[in-house]
C-alpha cells in the first residue's frame, strides 16, 4: 500500500512538472441532423436520413503546446473526422497506404502536424489545410456549414476528389488538405498577414510531380476581414497542372448585420483524365458566394446565402443554391439549427447536376433539402 502511494506521488510530481511546461487538450464537435431531400429518384421520390456534420463537420482532436522560452513554442495538432451517425472515425483522402486491416481510412485525416511558433509567426510540418480554405473560410456565406454540398468547401477549397483528386500530394481524393507539407503563417502587423505553403510530391526522379505551392495574404481587425490566395498543383505524371485563386471578405455594416462574399476559380492545363471526359484540359470551375447574417439576439442568428457554380473550358455546366439557416445557441458549446436549401441545376444532364454536389438526384434538375439538428462542442 505504501509503495502504491509512493508511486502515485512520484507520477503526480512528474505530471505537475510536465503540465507546468506544456499543455495538451482533447477537443471536438459532435453534430447530427435529420435531413429530408426531395427529387432523389427519377420519379421524384424523397429521401430521409440522419446525417452527421451538417452545421459543422463532426471531429475530434488532440492539440498541445510547450513553452520553450524566449517567446518560442513547440506545437502539435492531430485531428480526425467523426461520423457520429454510424460511430466510425477518420476518413479516406486518396493515395493512402492500406493498413493491415485493409482499411485506407486515416485516423487523423483533417490535420496532422508539428511545428514551432514565435514572434516570427508559425511553421507547421505534416498534413495541413491548403491556403484556399483559409481564404474562403474567413467569409463563407454559411460559415462552412453543409460541408459535403457547400460549393466553397467542395470546389473553392478543392474538397471534391471527383474534380480535383488528380492533383497535389495526396495523389487522389480530396485536395483540401495536403500531405507532406510545410506551412508558414506570418504574425499580424496592423491587422495584415500572409502565408506560404509547399507540399512535396515525393516522386523519385521528379521533385515537382504531385507537388503543391501556394501563397496568401489576409487582413482582420477581429470583426471584419479579407483574404486572397493563389496555388498551383501538379499531377503525378507532371503532364498537367491546376492553378486556382480564392478570395473572400466580410464586413459588419450594422451592429446586427454581417455581409459576406467570396469568389474562387480553378483552371486545368494539360492532358489529364479526371471524370468521364477524355481530358480535363482547359476546364474552369468558378464559384460565387454571397450571404448575410442577421443577429436577432445573443442567441439567435439568421443567415441568407446564395452560391453560383459554373463549369467551362471543356464542357459547360451550372448550378445555383439558395440557403436559409437559423441557429439558436443554448450555450457557447451547444447550438440547435435548421436550414432550407433549394438547389437548381442548368439541366438534368450530369455536367449540371454534378455541380449541385449530391443535393439533386439523377433525372432531376432541382431539389429541396431540409435539415434540423444540434451541435455540441467539447
Automatic annotation (TrEMBL):
**UniProt keyword annotation of Nucleotide-binding present:** no
Q: Where in the cell is it found?
A: Cell outer membrane
Which parts of the sequence belong to the Porin domain?
Answer: 7-344
Q: Which UniProt keywords apply?
A: Cell outer membrane, Ion transport, Membrane, Porin, Signal, Transmembrane, Transmembrane beta strand, Transport
InterPro entries per the record? Answer: Gram-neg_bact_OMP, Gram_neg_porin_domain, Porin_dom_sf, Porin_Neis
Topology within the bilayer = Multi-pass membrane protein
Q: Is the keyword Signal in the record? A: yes
Signal peptide from the UniProt entry:
1-20
Describe its partners and assembly state: Homotrimer.
Q: What is this protein called?
A: Porin
Organism the protein comes from: Undibacterium hunanense
Amino acid at each position: 500500500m505504501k509503495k502504491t502511494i509512493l508511486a502515485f506521488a512520484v507520477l503526480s510530481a512528474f505530471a505537475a512538472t510536465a503540465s507546468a511546461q506544456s499543455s495538451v487538450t482533447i477537443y471536438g464537435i459532435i453534430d447530427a441532423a435529420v435531413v429530408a431531400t426531395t427529387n432523389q429518384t427519377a420519379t421524384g421520390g424523397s429521401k430521409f436520413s440522419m446525417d452527421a456534420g451538417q452545421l459543422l463537420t463532426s471531429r475530434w482532436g488532440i492539440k498541445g503546446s510547450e513553452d520553450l522560452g524566449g517567446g518560442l513554442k513547440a506545437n502539435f495538432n492531430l485531428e480526425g473526422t467523426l461520423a457520429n451517425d454510424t460511430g466510425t472515425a477518420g476518413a479516406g483522402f486518396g493515395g493512402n497506404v492500406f493498413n493491415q486491416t485493409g482499411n485506407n481510412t486515416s485516423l487523423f485525416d483533417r490535420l496532422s502536424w508539428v511545428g514551432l511558433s514565435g514572434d516570427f509567426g508559425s511553421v507547421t510540418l505534416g498534413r495541413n489545410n491548403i491556403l484556399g480554405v483559409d481564404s474562403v473560410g474567413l467569409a463563407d456565406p454559411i460559415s462552412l456549414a453543409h460541408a459535403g454540398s457547400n460549393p466553397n468547401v467542395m470546389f473553392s477549397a478543392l474538397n471534391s476528389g471527383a474534380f480535383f483528386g488528380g492533383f497535389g500530394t495526396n495523389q487522389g481524393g480530396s485536395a483540401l488538405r495536403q500531405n507532406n507539407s510545410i506551412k508558414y503563417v506570418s504574425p499580424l502587423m496592423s491587422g495584415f498577414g500572409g502565408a506560404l505553403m509547399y507540399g512535396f510530391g515525393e516522386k523519385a526522379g521528379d521533385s515537382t510531380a504531385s507537388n503543391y505551392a501556394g501563397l496568401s495574404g489576409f487582413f482582420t481587425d477581429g470583426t471584419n476581414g479579407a483574404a486572397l490566395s493563389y496555388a498551383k498543383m501538379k499531377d503525378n505524371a507532371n503532364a498537367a497542372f491546376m492553378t486556382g485563386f480564392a478570395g473572400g471578405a466580410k464586413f459588419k455594416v450594422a451592429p446586427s448585420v454581417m455581409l459576406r462574399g467570396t469568389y474562387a476559380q480553378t483552371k486545368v492545363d494539360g492532358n489529364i483524365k479526371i471524370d468521364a471526359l477524355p481530358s480535363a484540359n482547359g476546364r474552369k470551375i468558378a464559384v460565387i458566394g454571397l450571404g448575410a447574417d442577421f443577429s436577432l439576439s445573443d442567441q439567435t442568428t439568421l443567415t441568407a446565402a446564395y452560391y453560383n457554380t459554373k463549369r467551362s473550358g471543356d464542357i459547360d455546366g451550372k448550378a445555383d443554391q439558395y440557403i436559409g439557416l437559423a441557429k439558436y445557441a443554448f450555450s457557447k458549446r451547444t447550438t440547435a439549427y435548421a436550414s432550407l436549401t433549394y438547389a437548381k441545376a442548368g439541366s438534368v444532364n450530369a455536367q449540371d447536376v454534378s455541380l449541385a454536389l449530391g443535393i439533386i438526384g439523377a433525372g432531376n434538375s432541382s431539389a429541396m433539402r431540409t435539415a434540423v439538428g444540434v451541435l455540441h462542442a467539447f
